Amino acid sequence: MRYISTRSGSYSMPSHQAVIQGLCPDGGLFVPEDLNIRIDLDALKDASYQEIAEVVIGAFFPDYTQEEIRQCVYGAYDSKFDDAEIVPVTPFSNGAIMELWHGPTSAFKDLALTILPHLLTTAYAKEQRDDTVAILTATSGDTGKAALSGFADVPHTHITVFYPVNGVSDIQKRQMNTSRGANVNVVAVEGNFDDCQRMVKTACADATVKAACNGVTISSANSINIGRLVPQIVYYFSTYLKLVRDGQIKDREPVTFVVPTGNFGDIFAGYLAAKAGLPVKNLIVASNDNNVLTDFIRTGTYDRNRPFHETISPSMDILISSNLERLLYFASNGDTAMVASLMKKLSETGTYTVSQELLHTIQSSFKAYWCDQDACRKAIADLYEREQILIDPHTAVAVSALEQYRAEGNQEYAVVLSTASPYKFARDVLACISTDQPEDAFAAMRLLKERTGLSIPQGLTELESLPVRFQTVIAEADGISFIAREMKELSK
Ligand SMILES: *Cc1c(COP(=O)(O)O)cnc(C)c1O
């Protein structure tokens, strides 16, 4: 199986080369050429997270040997995670909560970014290349730290993370600016996440940047890289199989997954899981006030020309959801010309409308809801009061979406993807369940622990005492020249 571009059907290459490339040279995203993959659920009934990961990732990346995949999987999913199950699942009154935040940086990005460096360095070894891979990554908060942690001191790699200067939480900023590693750099950009993402995508195709690269290949750790997307398919399977094992659902019973969504990567992995045989009823896109996806899935018109809201769920403050392009590709049966023309319209006018036929295909798998910040806060307070379950603001958006979906009479078993530890957003979460006035985010963490008894993840406790290493702030307009300079320094 090979990977091709969403925009032209060209650039056909095996998965490990697509992992190296990140983004297609025509601006498109890599997608598997066909989706004939079937994961045998029976064979995985009693499998561990790592065993499921071997099978699922191996199926999507067949040019890696079994042994290579095994090394990657066991290198990633080990004691870096503070729960032996890697992704534990907690039943609650409305279904189950899939806890994706037990990794080193306390957000779901760890599931992909602990394994991406292994997949990438293995790919380089397969190609017998010894150039430096320069990873450029835009972040709305969580990808940045997870990528910095995953790539720190990995040989032959260098990583630069760009984050919106006012668009991440105190804790997220501190996590990034205290990162360890001789090969890492962290840069604040005067702009929002979309500006950062556009800057990185533009840099990948920019002539001055290319000219500055000598023995350096630029790649990306954003969810545009299939090396991130594919590992995210695993937890849909592991959770489903666990629910069957625990008697929460019957074998082959279709379930609905509710996903707090920004760049459409996490939920798109659920779509690929369904395509590979997982019994999925619906995939619910949950958005915050930046509800561009809710409108798109309900009306067929994508329109980013609207106010950008900075919310308490910053990792979803996104108006251009990159991975949606992959859905357009599959839902149109691989109509690359159409995808290319919609993406051109998006970049020129900020909006596009799909055909009614395509909209109906999308609506047959996806539903969409959004909630504002008051509803988000209420979801946190209610769930804590009712069931003593503490969730972060991103997860709360999904819990609210599920309540709206239930109110329309939908009864099937549902799983909420919990994407971050509540401690990452301690101030906002604390304010939902108490009237305490903490001095700063660390005081908020301690108060939250006193009140709830929930332990603070190790990686967050130590932050307070780590030195701040990075303080660079740049204007968006200087991004390309900044990147060109950095590539020149990395060059041989
Ligand atoms: C990145 C992130 C999301 C959004 O995931 P996408 O794959 O971008 O849709 C949601 N919640 C948290 C906490 C995140 O870090």
Task: Please characterize this protein's 3D structure.
This protein is an alpha/beta fold and 492 residues long. Helices cover 43% and strands 15% of the residues. It has a domain at 89-104 and 229-464: Rossmann fold (3-Layer(aba) Sandwich), CATH 3.40.50.1100. The relative contact order is 0.14. The model has no long low-confidence stretch (mean pLDDT 95).
Question: Can I get a quick summary?
Answer:
The protein has helices spanning 15-21, 49-60, 66-76, 109-113, 116-126, 142-151, 170-177, 193-205, 207-212, 226-229, 234-245, 265-275, 292-299, 324-331, 336-349, 356-363, 373-387, 393-407, 426-433, 441-452, 458-461, 479-490, and strands at residues 3-5, 30-32, 89-92, 95-99, 132-138, 157-164, 184-190, 216-220, 255-260, 280-287, 301-303, 351-353, 366-370, 414-418, 472-475. It has 492 residues and is α/β, with parallel strands linked by helices.
Helix content: 40-55%
**Ligand catalogue:** pyridoxal-5'-phosphate
Question: Radius of gyration over alpha carbons?
Answer: 21 Å
Trace the largest sheet across and list its strands: 3-4-14-9-10-13
Question: What's the shape?
Answer: globular
| Annotated CATH architecture of the domain at 89-104 and 229-464 | 3-Layer(aba) Sandwich
Largest sheet data: 6 strands, mixed
What fraction of the residues are assigned to beta strands by DSSP?
A: 15-25%
Distance between the termini: 35 Å
Number of strands: 15
Under the CATH scheme, which class of the domain at 89-104 and 229-464? Alpha Beta
Uncertain regions: pLDDT < 50 for 5+ in a row?
none
